[in-house]
Amino acid sequence: MKFQFPLQKGTWIKRYKRFMVDINTANGDLLTLHSANTGSMKNCYVEGGKVWYWDSQNEKRKYPNSLELCETPSGHVACVNTARPNHLVAEAIENGVVKELQDFQTLKQEVRYGDEKSRIDILLSGGAQDIYVEVKNCTLMEESSEGQKIGFFPDSVSDRASKHLRELMRMVELGHRAVIFFCVNHTGIEEVRPADHIDTVYGELLREASHKGVEILAYKSQISDEEIVLRDKLSVILPKNN
After folding, report:
1. Contacts of 216 (CB under 8 A, 6+ apart)
2. pLDDT above 70 coverage of the chain, percent
């Protein structure tokens, strides 16, 4: 996925009101960016760290510049634009990168489904079974005592993410394939695990979903200042709860 608008560089000052981020531009000017990411963005940025942003050139927007990438405390780069993951995964599926998801004729996005009135991120149809794919953006990295660079999801308690797991389990019960897909938009992450230390309910549901036949995939993006491309499959580890 090529960036529609060229990325510009700045340095992080602060985040506030969930959607707003103040930075210093390369020229030293103060600029307020809009951030599509309303989550915690834990471990995704550092005061004085590098940021990359783009100008939408839309004069009707109150804040025409949008945050895209951040330098993390560990010196890696994370894509914090939550509008990207669904498109990255759809592009990777259509380009044959995701070998596990090639039995389809039609790809649709944001399709209503489920008992809890949800929207599935990607619906693949026309194959042996309909495939329901729920995409999650994974950008929280924590390093273990052994030096493993682990990606955790979610980065804050998420009732919505738990609801999606219940919906996927129901699709399996109805005879469809269902997939939780971790889109890893962080250059340092080497494997993915549920964030049991942040959201125990989600961790328990993810294990239950796996046991009931929901497939779990994780692919990592390659990030540059010109494009993001989903390429490398990562392992998903579900440690046993104590």
Report:
1. 179, 180, 182, 206, 209, 210, 236, 238
2. 99
- Say if CB 125 and CB 108 are below 8 A apart: yes
What does the block give as tokens for 108? 């649709």
Domains of the chain: 8-79 (2.40.50.580), 85-236 (3.40.1350.60)
Helix (H, G, I), strand (E, B) or coil at 147: coil
Instruction: Say what the pLDDT of residue 242 is.
Output: 57
Residue 211's H or E segment, with its range, is helix 200-211
Q: What is the DSSP letter of 5?
A: S
Is residue 54 within 8 A of residue 86, CB to CB? The reply is no
* Phi, psi values for residue 84, rounded to 5°: -85, -40
d(CA 89, CA 20): 27
Query: Using CA atoms in the order 169, 170, 175, 179, what is the torsion angle rounded to 10 degrees?
Result: -40
Cis preceding linkage at 154, omega within 30: yes
Burial class (CB in 10 A: 0-12, 13-18, 19+), 216: middle
